[in-house]
Amino acid sequence: MKRDILPYEPYLKELARNLRQNMTLAEVLLWKRLKGGGVMGYDFDRQRPIDRYIVDFFSKDLMLSVEVDGASHNQKERADAERQQRLEALGVRFVRCWDREVKNDLDGVVWRMEQWIRDHMERDGCA
Fold it and tell me: Among 2-11, 13-22, 104-113, where is mean pLDDT lowest?
């Protein structure tokens, strides 16, 4: 399988490293489920630079970003929409979940991700 190469601004590399060292509780909980192919065998990176942004979790094979939105998300909604639109133009697809959702129903969040993968892989002819 040939993966698309997604360029990123070099200055984001250090910022992403810092974000990985200071993840929120919800990000830590979700990362424990995602790492090592924990969701249907797909690999995810955490705090992955793409273009001029950093996404919470990213699977290169799926071209899927999983975003954990916190309480401050409402204030950043317009910026997030522009960011998502720009990344979608590069072929990145999104699954979004709330911070509290990850903390209170991690299995439900993972189930929704698995359902997204099943739906999209079947639609893309990869099932």
Answer: 2-11
Taking the complete model, does pTM exceed 0.85, yes or no? yes
Residue spans of alpha helices (H) in 38-105: 77-88, 99-104
**Residue environment code for 44-67, b if the CB has 16+ CB neighbours within 10 A, otherwise e:** bbbbbbbbebbbbbbbbebbbbbb
Q: Give me the pLDDT at residue 80, please.
A: 81
Decide: 57 and 48 in contact? Cβ < 8 Å: yes
Element (H, E) at 68: strand 64-69
* DSSP result, 8-49: B-TTHHHHHHHHHHT--HHHHHHHHHHGGGTBTTB--EEEEE
